[in-house]
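Q&A log
Question type: sequence-to-structure
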Amino acid sequence: MIRHQSNPEQLRVDTTIKIIEKDGTEIIAPVVVLIGLSKIEDNQQYNIYKIASRIFNKEFTLDRRNLVLPPKKPWYKFWKSK
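Response status: OK
Response body:
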């Protein structure tokens, strides 16, 4: 959710980070981003609002259940296909 703070010179964006572990447990952490508008001209503040909405106004999810790691090889065998 994006909204103006009580101070009109700031935007506040509330979002969450959600981590789903391999065993299925979920960890949810709230995140607050404050964007200062004091040095932005009035006619450009709407552009900042649109960009902040596009970037931060969503839930960030990391699903570790489907995370596939590449097989480990020694650093000196980078040219071999095995």
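Response note: The domain at 2-77 is CATH 3.10.20 (Ubiquitin-like (UB roll)).
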